[in-house]
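@channel sequence for tomorrow's demo:
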Amino acid sequence: MASSASRSPSPLSARRALPSTADVVIVGGGVMGASIAFHLAEAGVRDIVVVERGELAGGSSGKPIGGVRAQFSDPLNIELGHRSLRAFQDFPQRPGADISLDTVGYLFLLTDPVHAADFEAAVRTQHTFGVPSRMIGPAEAGALCPYLSTDGLVAAAHSPADGHARPALVVRGYARAAARTGTVFATRTAVTGMDVTGDRVTAVRTERGPVSCSTVVCAAGAWSAAIGAMAGVELPVRPLRRQLAFTAPLVPAAPRIPFTIDFASSAYFHNSDDGLLLGLADPGQAEGFDTTWTPDWLELFRAVARQRAPALAEMETSGGWAGLYEVTPDHNALIGRSAAPVNFLYATGFSGHGFLQAPAVGEIVRDLYLERRPCVDVGPLGAERFHAGSASRPEAHVV
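C-alpha cells (generated this afternoon):
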C-alpha cells in the first residue's frame, strides 16, 4: 500500500508560510543547500528553513548536465569526489530518486609532457583512495572516444567510475526527502540582512520577514560574498560566467563516449540526450553576474575542435546555456564554521566542483552542526586560509 506521503501532493509544490523561528536557516536552494538540508533532516534535525531567492536549482545547480568525478590532484578533493560518487550511485535508494546517472568515465587529454607528469602523480594519489584511474596512451584514448584526433597527444588520464548526472534531479530528490520530514523550502524569498548580537547571528531577515534562528548555513554559491558580509564574515567568492552549447540531434546517434576534456584548452564534450554537449572556459571572461548566453564563444570551442575532434567543429548547434562558477582565489571550496559569529557555517566557492562534491559536503556540514568529527577533515578549506601568512590549497585539475 502506498504511504500517505506518496499519495499527498509534493511538499515542494506550494509556497508555504515562512516560519518566524528555526533551528537552522540555510541560505541557498541549490544542490549544496538541498544536500545539507537532507543530511541534517536525516540526522533528526527539525525546524530547518531553506531560503532561496529564486526557485530551487535556479542558480548554478540548474545547469543541464553535471560531471561527477574523483580525478583531482588535491587529496581533499579526491576524497570528497570519491565519497560523493558512491552517494550518487546509491541515490535511487537514498534519498530515493532517479538522477540519470551515466557512468561513462572521464577522459582527460594531455598534450603537454609536464601536464602528463602531473596527472601521473595525481593518479598515484587517487589510487590510495581506491579511485580506479589510470594513465593511457593516445591510441587507447582514441578507442574510448572515436571523435578524437590523437595528433599531438602525449597521454590521457581515464577513470571509468566517473560520469555525469542531472543536477536538477539531485536537488529535487534531496529537497523532497527533506521536506517530508518538515523542512521548509522558502523559494522566491531573498535574504536582506542578518541580526548579529554578540558572537551569534540571531535572525536572518528576508523580504518576507525575519526568521529567528540558532544556526545559519551559507550555501549561496556565487552570491555568498554578499551573504557572508551580512554576518560580518569574509567569504572570497567571485562570480564567473561559463557557457555551453548543445548540438542539433545527431543521426546516426552519437556513440556513448566518456566526458572528454582537452586539458590545455579546457574544451570538453559528452553525450546529452540525442546529441552532444559542448563547453569551454573562456579565458577572457570578465567576472560578474551576467548569465546571458552569447553564441560567439562557440568559435573558441570550434578552434580547439578543429585540431582535437574535427567532426565536432562542423556540427550544427541548437542553443545553449550560461551559468555562474563561484570562484575562490585557489579554486578550492570554502567549508567550515566562522570564528565569529560562531553559529555561521558555510559551504561555498566550489569553483565548478560543487555539484560533484555535494553529497559529501552535506554530510560534513551536518557533522559540523552536530559538533562531531566529520568524515573528511575540511580544516584546510576554512575561509581564513586566505588571511596573511596562511597557505592556500593547490588543485591542478581545474576545468
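heads up for whoever presents: The two ends are 47 Å apart (CA to CA).
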